[in-house]
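quick q for whoever's on today - can somebody do inverse folding on this one?? i tried earlier but teh output was garbage lol. tokens:
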């Protein structure tokens, strides 16, 4: 049984990706998610292709990951700062009155 090689997805611009063809060696498809196009034959005939679906899934997954990764750190709760206590003779007088 032949093991499937992982698909290499390259982001080349905002919403634009290059994905290798599944059926032709040494051939890449250029996908533009914003324009809704792909350079493959299926897309040229108005059909949704495999490469477009992969680019769309990758974009959605990476967008969610980056959004969660870029969340600002929570603001720490306020900490009570103790009041300054007297020192030296004043401290002794406060303790022993």
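ok took a stab at it. sequence:
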């Amino acid at each position: 049984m032949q093991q499937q090689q992982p698909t290499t997805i390259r982001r080349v611009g905002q919403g634009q990706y290059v994905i290798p063809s599944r059926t032709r060696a040494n051939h890449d498809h250029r996908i533009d998610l914003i324009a809704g196009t792909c350079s493959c034959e299926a897309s040229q005939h108005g059909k949704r292709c495999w490469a477009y679906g992969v680019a769309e899934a990758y974009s959605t997954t990476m967008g969610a990951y980056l959004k969660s990764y870029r969340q600002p750190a929570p603001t720490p709760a306020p900490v009570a700062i103790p009041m300054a206590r007297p020192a030296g003779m004043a401290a002794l007088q406060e303790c022993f009155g």
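fwiw The mean pLDDT is 82. also The longest helix spans residues 50-69. so keep that in mind when u check it
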